[in-house]
Specification:
Elements (H helix, E strand, L loop, with lengths): L10 E6 L9 H16 L3 E3 L11 E8 L2 E7 L5 E8 L4 H20 L2 H26 L3 E3 L1 H13 L5
Parallel strand pairs: 1-3
Antiparallel strand pairs: 2-6, 3-4, 4-5
Helix pairs in contact: 1-4, 2-3, 3-4
């Protein structure tokens, strides 16, 4: 992979399996849209397994949850499948639950709190999001190399796949 063009080692399309998404509200839809837009604007995504033909991007990505596991279905630019990376979600349950709780507090604060209170909740939300992104990067180590911002946005999308009404 040392000959790969870094400009090609990126996601050009990302979808969430609609069957994995249990429930949405307008705030969640906005988070999903923003995360996908931001990923497509700027990301680093480098599957670590070499492929016989040397393919090294760009990639199409489908995220889904199956039997308690997160599945990264990675495809080539033409849409043909390349590989699937599967991660157990056990370690993500608490960060996802905590992130939902802090986001609920944040949305409530926006409606009823002072600017300082909103800022305090937002700082806590960002810190939790950063920790979860680091955890995702660690879990992907040796499987997919991503930059920090891409990991943050992917964590947002993982959360979208876990929202229950």
């Amino acid at each position: 992979m040392t000959d790969a063009d870094p400009a090609q080692q990126r996601i050009i399309s990302i979808d969430l399996d609609e069957g994995s998404i249990i429930w949405r509200n307008p705030d969640v839809e906005q988070e999903r849209r923003v995360a996908i837009f931001d990923i497509l604007e700027d990301n680093r995504f480098v599957p670590q397994r070499g492929h016989p033909d040397g393919y090294a991007g760009p990639y199409r990505l489908m995220l889904r949850v199956e039997e308690g596991r997160l599945v990264f279905e990675i495809g080539r630019e033409d849409g043909s499948p390349l590989e699937a990376i599967i991660l157990g979600l056990g370690r993500f349950r608490r960060p996802i639950r905590d992130y939902f709780a802090i986001c609920d507090s944040y949305y409530q604060a926006i409606r009823t709190s002072t600017a300082q209170q909103i800022e305090t909740v937002d700082m806590a939300r960002r810190a939790l999001h950063n920790e979860a992104a680091e955890m995702l990067m660690d879990r992907l180590d040796g499987k997919i190399a991503v930059d920090f911002d891409t990991a943050r946005r992917l964590f947002t999308l993982i959360c979208v796949l876990h929202i229950k009404g």
